[in-house]
Amino acid sequence: MYSNGAVPRARKERKVSVVFRHPNDEKHCAGVEAVLCPVVPNHKLLFTASRDSTIKRWDAAGPEAIMEASFDGHADWVNDMAIIGDLLITCSNDQTVRLWKAGSENGQHLHTLSYHSDYVTCLAAAPARSMVVSAGLRAEIFTLNVETGKHTQLYPRSQQSASPNSLSSASSVHAHVSVPSVGVLGSEDGPFTGGSVSNSPFSSSNLAKEQPGSVYALALNPTATVLAAGTSEALVRLLDPRSGKKITKLRGHLDTVRALLLNADGTTLLSGASDGTIKLWDIGMQRCVQTYTLHTDAVWSLLSPDDSFAVIYSAGRDRALYRTYTHTRTSELLAVEEYPVRALALDSDVGLDVAGRSSVGLWAATSASHMNLWVVPRDLPPGSAAGVDTGRAFSVARRSQGLPVNMRNRMSLEQNRQPIARLPEMVIPGTPGLVLHEVLTDKRRVLTQDMRGHVGLWDVLQGAQVASFGKVDFSSKIRELWEPHSVPSWFTADTRLGCLCITLEPTSAFMAEEYGVTLEYGNVSDDFKVNYGKLVLDCAFAKWRYKLAASLSMHLQGVPAGVGLQGTGAPGNLLHSQMQLQGGGLAQPGTLVAAGSGSGSGGLPEGSGAQPYYLDIWPKYWTCRALPAVICSRQDGTRWRRLISSFDGTEVEPAEVPTWVGDVVLRNANVTPKEAKCAFVLLPAEGSNLPSLPQSKLNAPRILQVHKVANYCYGKLQDQGVPLVVRPFYLRRPPYAPESPPESCKGGEPPALELTCNGMAVPYEMSLATIKKYIWKRSDDLIFHFRIRDPEHPAPAPTISGPGG
């Protein structure tokens, strides 16, 4: 069994994030961080790992790559991958290492390992030894035996010895990994048997003594006798992964080491760094034997087709793909990408090029969401490159005189070097990722911009993009869409994953609400309010709520408690403790229930005979084409990600789902905002000759709109025998507003009521909170004056300036 190995973290309220995915979820929507092209008989497969938190498997045999499976579960950028047999191992900024069945049709997740305490940046594998090494920030390096499930902290060394641990993974744990039904990746890996070993958490005392740098690259030889780790200290740390003993440190780079290659016997090492250089090291002599200065910026990826390192491929931030012949110390420019290159994968079986020459393919993963396959003539024999390549090759030996190396290379790249390949042979398209966002003042719409510069408008209550503006100036569109609103911030937004993600915290998630009529809910009373945070949570956890209700119903009807409760040791009475019905607020199976239906949010009532709740039926206001995903964390801090259609009711609270979410979604907890009221005063304008109201100082919800204040004033004056009519005044007429009655030409029509604040007419579509913020502009009680409207001299409209005004 695998040990989850979760590192203890400080207790704090857990957040819930909702990821609004792009409609075409078969494509990546953010930069690709890693790519693998494993050698599989009779198949040509490609694995890509992205900043959008997903891994995808592609069939790249045809003229167009076909997405075969998506591996979903990570909650942040996926940084690296490794394959051992039919086991896919991935690591992420969510601080986990995850194991998947590589050949599965649905991206089957096997284990989540949480022994790292910070971002996990890189992996290295020795398949013959069933060993995977993971490393990341805080200099942490762990080894994992995929046969036994044992993991050990290799560096920094813990002061406590490892001790057996029989805890099973919190994810879907299988005692054995079966062979794939369609022998895609082979079946040589053995069963997962027996316990696990976990060292103590990361030692802060060791860190304080040495302050080792974070690890950004790993290389492990096939026999797992030498491990190289590239660090932010501009050095390569060599360790023995069997004993954890330090071998040596290789110094010479001037910046973070970002790429490593190690030969089979562990005697020769290649390193690439952010200083733009590639170095060849003799490990026995512990020194650099050659430095190659071809790149103009950081080197992020290195490849070699064989163990001799006679030919190496490199790429990085300067977007250039090079092939270097180490024996002649010459290089040639193969291609130039549009974006910085994060990783390379070699495809040695691409056949002949158009000229009939034997060719080799390079898959390039960049900070964009698409992938390019570059096909170039196969490596030339060492010593012949300079003569055969008709001037394309150039010397990359370090020289110490003249212009700085990077400047000289940049000038040469721009003036003389022409790439061998001008266009990629194949492109795996992606969805342009979102890179900018702005939450508008209504705290409901979010303006976004993608990598192409295209601007779109999202509605977080609908969970979808509602408008597309094309390629326009982002700041100008913000000013154009700006409207005066005063709504508390109830979520934070980000586009880290290339798509829009909103995060809710218990302290602020329920601060914003709106009248159902304003949200165009049908068949609701005028005073019915919708809490934005509750609505989003009800939508996101609707399937979970329904599955729990179904399990509870089976339990109450005498079905054995174990049926439908395949979770982590859920006791028979667990549902009773989780789902205490409060006023019938929980749906029974077979009933379609919209979000918050217990409080009248537009859902169908229980027992109404509505159609059953299926996967494609969601609450009224959730109209997205691609179902969102939920990101949260367990009690131990391990983050999880799940499509809202993937909940099965086994997710227990508080271990997986926070209690505050269960209180709202299951138990209909009161979510009325603390600052929900606004005090205001209604006074007759000076010289209006209108009577004072019986009760002039009032309290009302801060979301109350002015037209209701006007109607209240009209009614009270009517009671005192003052006949007036209400003619609404709008800055922007809302869609729900009724048409104003036409002005009568007859002299007998009653005069119109006019409301002012600070001497200006108040727009009827504004709320009390908005009037207080933009017109009253004071912290004390809001004061309205009412009078008879003078058609010749009406009160001036307010002048409200937006951003930059």
Description:
Strands 44, 45, 46, 47, 48 and 49 form a 6-stranded mixed sheet that branches. Strands 38-39-1-42-43 form a 5-stranded antiparallel sheet, with helices on one face. It is mainly β and 805 residues long. The longest helix is centred in the last third of the chain and has 15 residues, at 542-556. β47 (752-757) and β48 (760-761) form a beta hairpin. The model is unreliable at 160-209, 381-390, 399-403 and 561-618 (pLDDT under 50).
Q: How would you summarize this macromolecular structure in one to three sentences?
A:
Helices cover 11% and strands 32% of the residues. Residues 160-209, 381-390, 399-403 and 561-618 have low confidence and may be disordered.
List the main descriptive attributes of the protein structure presented here:
single chain; 805 residues; mainly beta; 6-stranded mixed β-sheet; 5-stranded antiparallel β-sheet; 11% helix
Which helices and strands, and how do they pair?
Elements: E1 16-20, E2 32-36, E3 39-40, E4 43-50, E5 54-59, E6 66-72, E7 78-84, E8 87-92, E9 97-101, E10 109-113, E11 120-126, E12 131-136, E13 141-145, E14 151-155, E15 163-165, E16 196-198, H1 204-210, E17 215-220, E18 227-231, E19 235-239, E20 246-251, E21 257-262, E22 268-273, E23 278-282, E24 287-292, E25 299-303, E26 311-316, E27 320-325, E28 330-336, E29 341-347, E30 359-366, E31 371-377, H2 385-388, E32 394-395, H3 405-415, E33 426-428, E34 434-439, E35 445-450, E36 454-459, E37 464-471, H4 474-481, E38 492-494, E39 500-504, E40 513-515, E41 529-531, H5 532-540, H6 542-556, H7 574-578, E42 629-633, E43 639-643, H8 659-665, E44 677-684, E45 697-701, H9 706-719, E46 725-726, E47 752-757, E48 760-761, H10 768-776, E49 782-788
Parallel strand pairs: 44-49, 46-47
Antiparallel strand pairs: 1-39, 1-42, 2-4, 3-4, 4-5, 5-6, 7-8, 8-9, 9-10, 11-12, 12-13, 13-14, 15-16, 17-18, 18-19, 19-20, 21-22, 22-23, 23-24, 25-26, 26-27, 27-28, 28-32, 29-30, 30-31, 31-33, 34-35, 35-36, 36-37, 38-39, 40-41, 42-43, 44-45, 47-48, 47-49
Family: Belongs to the WD repeat WDR48 family.
WD repeats: 41-68, 71-101, 250-291
Keywords: Repeat, WD repeat
